[in-house]
Amino acid sequence: MLIGELAERAGTSPRTLRYYEEHGLIHPSRDANGYRQYDDGELRVVHEIRALLADGFGVDDIKPFVACLRAGNSSGHVCPDSAAVLRRRLAEVDGYLDQLTAVRRRLQTQLEEIKCQMTP
Amino acid sequence: MLIGELAERAGTSPRTLRYYEEHGLIHPSRDANGYRQYDDGELRVVHEIRALLADGFGVDDIKPFVACLRAGNSSGHVCPDSAAVLRRRLAEVDGYLDQLTAVRRRLQTQLEEIKCQMTP
DNA sequence: CCTTGCCTTGACGCCGGTGTCAGGGCCTAC
DNA sequence: GTAGGCCCTGACACCGGCGTCAAGGCAAGG
What we know:
2 copies of one chain form a homodimer.
Chain A: H1 3-10, H2 14-22, E1 29-30, E2 36-37, H3 41-54, H4 59-70, H5 80-118
Antiparallel strand pairs in A: 1-2
The first copy, chain A, binds a DNA duplex (30 and 30 nucleotides) through residues 2-4, 12-16, 18-19, 31, 33-36, 53, 58-59.
């Protein structure tokens, strides 16, 4: 499978797949003419990558998940390294949630102050 | 008051104050030698700007708040334009909260799957 | 042969608030 | 006169995932 086909099947672009490769997430072989050649299993990997990116992981965080998948596991997050990244990201998300919640509270307070001033 | 003094009093840097000016948030006068001259009221304005930035507003969003303050209001968010921006930002924050909450749920689910596999 | 359509590498752009460096002017104190 | 500390403008760097353009190779069909 060439890069264009994999990109289309994964719902993304060739540029994006080359970017993943550049960052060590996928390692396609090459045809005699230099074209990247992907086997069907890579589709699964790319889907995993994109799911993790959508959950806010960075490309470097994703490496252990891909390695875990390639090691034959049914999902990429059952390995110790992946689990560590998962826990780190969970803590990070919790931090963001706290910050956003605080912001939300301030915004709401300010909006209520306005309403009070409208009927003094 | 020169830019360095205002920066220090506001807990920021001259570079940052010039950036705010470049984006229309503050309009200092100039000394004969070209130095920016700030009066004491600007300290309040800069504090307002920084509080709004910390709550995730962009510099363009902040303009109505500054205008509101300059119009003599006790706080920058009591004017209709500011209130509109506040509501927009609140909706945005709610959106982010929803997304982050969904991500958090997925992360937790995956971590629990791991625990289950550890004691099969 | 020529077009078309895929592929290749390389490189810049984006976004946004700020740090930081370059190159130069003003002012005060010694 | 000169050293030091403030000020000025202008411009590049950052971060990260990807769009997009450039310039060119390869394959197949007319």
